[in-house]
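Request:
Um, any thoughts?
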Amino acid sequence: MTTSVQSQASPVPTAGTGLILALGVTQVAGYGTLYYAFAVLAPGMTRSFGWVPEWTYGGFAVGLLAGGLAAPFAGRLIDSFGTRWMMSIGSALASLSLFALSKAEGLISYYAAMIMLEVVSTLVLYDAAFTALTQAHGASARRAISKLTLIGGFASTLFWPLTTALLAQADWRAIYQIYAVGYLLLALPLHVLLLPRGAPVHAAKPARSTGATTADGYLVGAARQRAFVLLAVAFSLQGFVVSAMSVHMLTLLQGFGFSAALAVTFGAMVGPSQVTGRLIEMLFGTNVPPVTTAWVSGALMPLGFILLVFGGGTAALAGLFAIAYGVSMGLSSIVRGTVPLQLFGPAGYGAMLGKLSAPGLVIRAAAPLAFAVMMERTGLSASTAVLVALSGVAALALLLLARTATAEG
């Protein structure tokens, strides 16, 4: 008799728009305060501490590394105790971390606060939120995940100008303290009151399976391992590109001959393009397999860079680069939540997301510094070629993943 992975817990009632909106608000606030604010505040932090910028950005990189190491453990905690408790605790700890960062006086306290901040973020950002939706909706969480990322896409749009405006009135320490209090007052009640209250979905061993899949269509055995490796490779390589571009996009665009004003314009197009890509997927992608969305979004990234490289400084092609890159980033956020759900199922979902994040942790943490050194030593063209190659290999891995899923399904 063939059986599939079943939940050992009682079903969790399906949550609706209220849960998605609550998580959307906490994701905007979380990414805004824990991630995007740093890009605006880092120069002032460097001047305040009186050290070179490498120490400031190095703390951020070490924090990302620690967060990546903590991700699998955080995923297991969320699977074991449920998102309501873990995201609520994470909200309080995230607020405490922001306050600790505001009080840092030297290298040790600064690095300790940054490490704490990034480790705690694994309990409150996308991976945790995707798990909350999966615990509420089960295997049908795809549409809810798409809606959540649509809201979350406004984090940088809101918090870059907000942080800049606050910086005109206060220093970085006061701003982080404002964000610490604001995040706690906003996120903690929403997590406590609106996240799923039922028992989490636990993994159970399938007694037997048919071929490479369970009766529910989830991959097992060698097929599961192969899909995991392809997905981890794709996420890691895309993570390098996105991490590098988050710091160096304006420098890259100016290197191709565009003025600072045009570079900022093209950079500003990325955010709306992300939201547009997510909106298109939400409205028209319901009947498209997530693995198909994955390789299409993956292919858009190297295509965008190729347009930039061969555009010869043409503004129209640089604009198309920004759009293609933004849409790819927007869709990849959805893919990160929906493809593991399609291939591996809802059981043990939080731990699975953590394991997928772990392989690329060093790559993502080192990317900004590595790409800066690359541009300085090898030049703009060679550095951009590396971005094309890495994003191209990621796209190929996602295409192979789609073929594997189709063949095994």
About this structure: The two ends are 19 Å apart (CA to CA). Residues 298 and 395 are 4 Å apart (CA to CA). The chain has two domains: 17-194, 221-408.
